[in-house]
Amino acid sequence: MNRYETVVSSGYQQAASANKVLKNTYMLLSATLFFSAVMAMISMALNVPSIAYIISVIASMVLGIFVLPRTANSTSGIGVIFLITGLLGFGLGPILSTYLALPNGPQTIATAFGGTGIIFLGLSGYALTSKRDFSFMGGFLFAGMMVLVIGMLANLFLQMPLLSLAISGGIILVMSGFILFDTARIVRGGETNYIMATYGLFLSIFNIFISLLQILGIFGNDE
Amino acid sequence: MEWTQILGAVAGVMMLVFLWPAYKHWSKNSPKAEEGDWASVIVALGAVVLLVLVLIAMVR
Question: Taking the complete model, does pTM exceed 0.80, yes or no?
């Protein structure tokens, strides 16, 4: 095999491997989103108190930081990702119950759900078709996320509605950037583990949904 | 101070601890943006902003 054939063969194998990771990621993402929605319905039916949200976020964060990276290369990683996404869904239940009790609650939830779907599908399609390498945004996205977390910490004590609105808007933008970044990394072979890829995309979708819900909740009930 | 505030602060600090190494890694190892890269990001994020404004108008 000459050098040209080796390069073509290697490029073909890389593309085939990236396509496989992408396909597995989207299949696992669909399954985890469905499971998370089922867990949210169960926690709504059980009338779980609102503190469950913060507890489930902390528990899923601990699992995501300490357990998932160690298990992502084995089949137990699939169990861990379902546990994390199930916990996040379970924590979402009391938030959804609170919104459902508002006058325009069901409409707000449906709009946030539809909006999140459009944002995810639109940005994924854009990253897949533009073929651009969005990994140049890495430092910028993580810096932006840290600024937003510091803002959230400050607002726990300041309780300023405008700051809360600005943080939600910022989260939607940064998470949208992460969808471009993560999808481009999968396509270009930068992310080869579909469990970790699913985790990244799930967190982006989850955070966009929560932030959109908050923004629409504020504007939909401000009379 | 309420329990939710304390737990929220714990979650926030944990997130910062988790984000810091990722930030250091990507700020050192990110490739440089090529011509048109930032413009394509701005177009995509601009579309997201427009969509959010449309959704706000729908629920008002």
Answer: yes
Q: Do B41 and A134 touch (CB under 8 A)?
A: yes
Its ipTM equals 0.92
Contact B18 A65 (CB under 8 A): yes
> And the tokens for A44?
């709504």
Say whether B43 sits in a helix, a strand or coil.
helix
- Residue identified by tokens 């916990």 is A87
**Interchain pair B52, A172: CB under 8 A:** yes
Spatial distance between the Cα atoms of A22 and A66, rounded to a whole number of angstroms: 24
The pLDDT tens digits for A138-176 are 999 999 999 999 999 999 989 899 999 999 999 999 999
Range A22-53 burial, b when 16+ CB lie within 10 A, else e: bebbbebbeebbebbeebbeebbeeebeeebb
